[in-house]
Amino acid sequence: MKRYNVAVVGAGIVGKKMVEVLIERNFPYKDIKILATREREEVIAGKRVKVEKTEIESFNNIDIAFFAGTEGEKGASKLFGWEAVKKGAIVIDNGGDFRMDSRVPLVIPEVNPHHLKGHQGFIANPNCSTIIMLMAVSPIHRRYSVKRIIASTYQAVSGTGKNAVDELETQVRAYVNGNEIKNAVYPYQIAFNVIPEIGGLSSEYSGYYTEEVKMIKETHKILGTEDIEISATCVRVPVFNGHSESITIQCEREIDIEEIKELLNYSSGVKVIDEPEKSKYPVPINVSGKDEVYVGRIRKSTALDNGLDMWIVGDNIRKGAALNAIQIAEEMIKMQLI
Predict the structure, then answer these.
(1) Which residues of the chain have pLDDT under 70?
(2) Which CATH number describes the domain made up of 4-125+321-334?
């Protein structure tokens, strides 16, 4: 088997998880180089490793470069992504800078692997919320033709990065100890609170934040159609890891709930937990650390013809970021595109 020289750009939550996933999945790497904004040592996958400062020369002899897009590294692909491609690397970028670039495929391997064909050396990972939603929605779309999606997300603080995880923990400890609760990462206290603001205000859609716009535009690009009407409200919640989503879809054809459950259960990377009478449905505390996206509360909508309501939960750091990027590389190897 051919082995590849790999670079991971970013040593924050996602970058570290990328390294862990590469090792866990026995990815055919020859060497893994870890790059960040500054040189240092970090404990990654249980080992103390050297982190190098990212330079253009860092990508010499690199076959695959994963850009983590966190810990201040969002934007690193703007500086180094296409330069790495010029040096012969395949770039897989978890950041948001090139997702809507017409040169760049935006890929969930279980959903649109065919978009990898004809790549120009640079592939983008979708936003975590988009990945988690479409893992469940796309199999239904293929069967029933989805024409409308209404999404409400409940997003964990790990999606913001380590500082947000630390802030939630510090605020909970302060509350328990009767101390003053301070906030720095978010505009409000996140402990025991929810904040309906993720990203900046959009200049394209009045009143929408950019995370919500990502779900709209990325879904259209991944599914290859702008005919689906989409609305999203994205909310940060005091959960350490694991995004949850309440999704309502309307289809062109009459739906069969049992067939949809079976369809989802047999979809790669999806698991159904749907026994509401026994209080069995996905929750983030049980899904954190898992590769699959979990779906429950699957039921006909009472408000829409051919409508369906469902509850979707996924690990935003694994499938929503690191794992999806590694799966893109695996798919490209399988398709002999690397």
Answers:
(1) 70-74
(2) 3.40.50.720
